[in-house]
Design a protein that fits this description.
This protein has about 130 residues and is mostly beta strands. The protein has no helices and six strands.
């Protein structure tokens, strides 16, 4: 055993720290569509939702995309802000999470899933942060 400053630092996979540091729940909003002209429809977060899964381990990472938001107003952000949510394969069955589902994390944030991609390692969800 060498002196402390001569020992190499532990590699990330040797630290026993999980990369999935967040916990999320996935909800599916009830359909708002019906017969006839409904006018403008938007997500109503206070409306009926079905819980698909809770207590899922997840890694939530901010993604910066090129391009400007569609509004093109003077106060619009310079670029779009997207989030990638990674869920391990063992946590949820493929096909459970779909586009337009809502993911809420342990920090109280809510995300709308814009693309649910089941992979060999688990889910990769592309999502947009919803306003409170």
């Amino acid at each position: 055993m060498g002196r402390p400053w001569e020992d190499p630092p532990l590699r990330p996979w040797e630290t026993q720290q999980s990369i999935y540091i967040r916990t999320i729940a996935v909800l599916r909003p009830a359909s708002q569509l019906g017969p006839g002209d409904q006018g403008y429809l938007a997500l109503n977060r206070k409306g009926a939702m079905t819980t698909l899964a809770t207590g899922l381990p997840a890694s939530i990472q901010s993604v910066r995309e090129r391009g400007t938001p569609l509004g093109k107003t003077p106060s619009a952000a310079e670029s779009k802000s997207q989030w990638d949510i990674y869920i391990p394969l063992s946590a949820v069955a493929p096909g459970t999470i779909k586009d337009r589902d809502i993911a809420t994390d342990d920090l109280g944030r809510a995300f709308m899933v814009t693309a649910a991609d089941p992979t060999a390692l688990g889910y990769r969800l592309r999502a947009e942060l919803l306003e409170a």
